[in-house]
Amino acid sequence: MPEHLFTSGHTACSGCGQSLAARLVIDTAGPNTIVVNNTGCLEVFSTKYPESAWQVPWVHSLFENAAAVASGVEAALKYLGTKDTINIIAQAGDGGTADIGLQALSGMLERGHDILYVCYDNEAYMNTGVQRSGLTPFDANTTTSPIGNNSKGNPRPKKPLPEIALAHGIPYVATASVGFPQDIQRKVKKALSIKGPKYMQIHVPCPLGWRHEPQLTYAIAKLAVETGLYPLVEFENGVKSARQIKPKPVEEYLKTQARFKHLINNPEELKRVQAVADSNIERYNLKLQ
Amino acid sequence: MFGPLICKPGSSKNNKTGSWRVEVKPKFLQKNCIACKMCLVICPEACITGNEKNTYICDYQYCKGCGNCAAICPKQDIVMIKEDSKE
């Protein structure tokens, strides 16, 4: 059996979706890869000094600049003339991508560096204790959007980051989910075969922050896709293709996690979350014909 | 600390995270396995090995007992058993 490029012994929580997605990405990319990491859960649990779970060159600098450091790595490899044989992956969590690192990401996409940027979207700042981020979904209970008499959780919808990346006119944008692991492998392979900046966003359940049982990681990620709350779409040179689903009611997804517990006996709020799913389904034409 | 901190690749293997398991651990029955590899693909710890039917097994030194392998197995060939059972 081939050795994994992301090894055992990292200190992620039991059932962590991010560690699973990170391993799928790096195993698919292969050993000729340089990884640049933002600060975040992934950086902290995979490289507990003096140990590292990575079997490939791996760089961490700051919270906001994985995309900028990766741009520098790419420019250096271009100068050395070895860029064509080496893949560069910049990766970050959702906070490091959508909020703190957005400027560096936008610069990377605009300058046209040949880099695959992977965002592991666990929908809040999990490393520092579940604070709301730009990618936190509507009505989720986090420590900075708590529920109460006048609050039903996060009041704002999820930031449409794949579309922000797409607006830069880059050749490849995709969303993926650990509920469909082969789909992640296929998309990484495809992305690395394309020259230019690529953006990928992977939905990764977090048992600690979403408050679900660790054995449900896979099932919950799958339900998010099947309810239409996390559409799996792919834009190749702007041409859209999406995974078709038979939409399930959003309750099935929401009731699995304690961060949405306050919605279950609240039909009004459920309707609003269902409206989010419905608008996704309509927008990306997800319904199986 | 200033300057680069460099550590050996894959050195996290020194970290025996198997001691994190509290209640349950997976048991690979190795009876109806069809070698679909889904347990190997889904394991967040990357501690499952095997390549043919009925040969898949996890490394209990690293397994944190999350139970995703048992949840994903299409043949129910992996079951979660109590940590202190004698099997």
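qc> The CA atoms of residues 2 and 213 of chain A lie 30 Å apart.
qc> done
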